[in-house]
Design a protein that fits this description.
With about 200 residues, this protein is an alpha/beta fold. The protein is built from 7 helices and 7 strands, in the order βαβαβααβαβαββα.
Length: about 200
């Protein structure tokens, strides 16, 4: 299965996917990495692994429609079967959503539908979980549609919230599980246990 990974910043989830492919933990390969941020570590990680890396943004392309066309051209060129959003901080254009309907997945650092939606990313999520007095949080992988964090949930895993947790300590615990979990779920997708298309 040919996977394109979209990431905006550090790309630690991307690295987990690359390592999972190299270690034969999933029947897949990362064939392209797309970032809206020219300085993202994700692009550097891709280059380090000799994976085609693309900096594509609306500003650079001259608008959302031309950006969508560029994205679709890259996906077509590399024969992409599935898109994985690993910390991609942009909403995908409707033309991309329609072309890859049911084949776009996102990872979210909480148990959706709680703590999702616009503005709920990174430390904002972990801060909200702690402030709500939750005793557990976790990781959700869901299909992507035109509304933030509202697509069909395909898999979840729980992570405990410890007494005295800060957003930073909770984030570290969730991220450690996130890296394992996304490989487990991508393995299930690549083997047809979770349907695409």
């Amino acid at each position: 299965m040919n996977v394109a990974v979209f990431a905006s910043h550090g790309g630690s989830d991307l690295q987990a996917i690359i390592d999972g492919c190299k270690n034969n933990k999933m029947n897949a390969q990362v064939v392209a990495v797309i970032s809206n941020n020219s300085d993202s570590m994700a692009l550097q990680r891709a280059r380090n692994e000799k994976i085609p890396a693309y900096h594509l943004s609306a500003k650079k392309s001259g608008g959302e429609d031309s950006l969508a066309k560029e994205i679709l051209d890259v996906l077509s060129k590399h024969g992409v079967d599935m898109i994985f959003l690993a910390g991609y901080m942009r909403m995908l254009h409707i033309s991309v959503l329609e072309k890859y309907d049911h084949r776009i997945f996102n990872i979210h650092p909480a148990l959706l539908p709680k703590f999702g939606g616009k503005g709920m990313y990174g430390m904002n999520v972990h801060k909200a979980v702690i402030e709500a007095g939750e005793t557990e949080t976790g990781v959700t992988i869901h299909r992507v549609n035109a509304e933030y964090d509202s697509g069909e949930i395909v898999a979840q895993t729980k992570v405990p919230v410890m007494e005295g947790d800060t957003p930073e300590t909770l984030a570290a615990r969730v991220l450690a599980r996130e890296h394992e979990f996304l490989v487990e779920v991508l393995s299930d997708i690549s083997e047809g246990k979770i349907a695409i298309g």
